[in-house]
Write a structure and sequence with these properties.
alpha+beta, Phosphorylase Kinase, domain 1, binds zinc ion, 4-stranded antiparallel sheet, globular, about 230 residues, Muramoyl-pentapeptide Carboxypeptidase, domain 2
Length: about 230
């Protein structure tokens, strides 16, 4: 067994954070964590992990150069003139926009959409979810949440808001969301933050890889990759 410690201020950090009218962005990404995912557009920056996965996605799509990125990370001070700057996902460094007329229906865009979830990206504002996301359809706006969350969101046809509500039914001492991927099992569960600002310590099997993200609201999403021999979660 090994332990991970969750501190309440980490609720505002991570790939899964929700930014909307009910959940303002608290954390600004570290400048050192921002890198350009497109060689031809060095001014467009994303958080390192999102940028790395977007580069891998590009390498899988022949002709992606015809899709033009127009916005990645936007610092809060550049958004100050708009209505609700702390709800704009571009402030997290986890969102990318492509030029709008081009991002409609052509083969390259279709391929990008088809492969995006494999690399951790979702279409954040689908047209049939506007009443839940609070935003009109934006087919050009992609958000990095990380795999396998992106795949589950796509397969279950959820918005990010719905996914956060959905994953809360899977708790540390109850049932975990589980799936298998190339011989590894992946388990996902939610851990609520404490109201008294205490750190939370949880025990996990030693031979597991763990990712933790806050939800930007009230708790943490734990993603646990287990090899076949790593034993049962206790
Ligand atoms: Zn956008």
């Amino acid at each position: 067994m090994k332990q991970i410690i969750l501190a309440n201020d980490e609720v505002w950090h991570g790939n899964m954070i929700l930014a909307n009218a009910e959940s303002s962005i608290i954390n600004e990404p570290d400048a050192n964590s921002l890198i350009p995912p497109f060689l031809s557009y060095p001014e467009i920056l994303l958080e390192r992990c999102a940028a790395t996965m977007l580069m891998k996605l590009q390498s899988e799509i022949y002709g992606l150069g015809t899709i033009i990125p127009i916005r990645g990370y936007c610092p809060k001070d550049k958004l100050a003139s708009i209505a609700c700057p702390d709800q704009v996902e571009h402030q997290t460094g986890l969102a990318i926009d492509f030029i709008r007329p081009a991002f409609s229906s052509n083969d390259i865009c279709d391929e990008f959409i088809r492969k995006a979830s494999k690399f951790g990206f979702i279409q954040r504002y689908p047209k049939n979810k506007a009443d839940i996301t609070g935003a009109a359809s934006e087919p050009w706006h992609f958000r990095y949440v990380g795999y396998p969350h992106s795949m589950i969101i796509e397969n279950e046809e959820l918005s990010l808001e719905e996914y956060h509500a959905y994953i809360k039914q899977y708790t540390i001492n109850g049932t975990h969301y589980s799936l298998c991927n190339d011989g590894q099992s992946i388990e996902i569960f939610y851990v609520p933050a404490t109201s008294d600002n205490q750190r939370i310590t949880i025990d996990i099997p030693a031979e597991t890889i763990i990712q933790v993200s806050g939800n930007n609201l009230d708790g943490f999403i734990i993603t646990m990759w287990k090899t076949r021999n790593s034993g049962e979660f206790k």
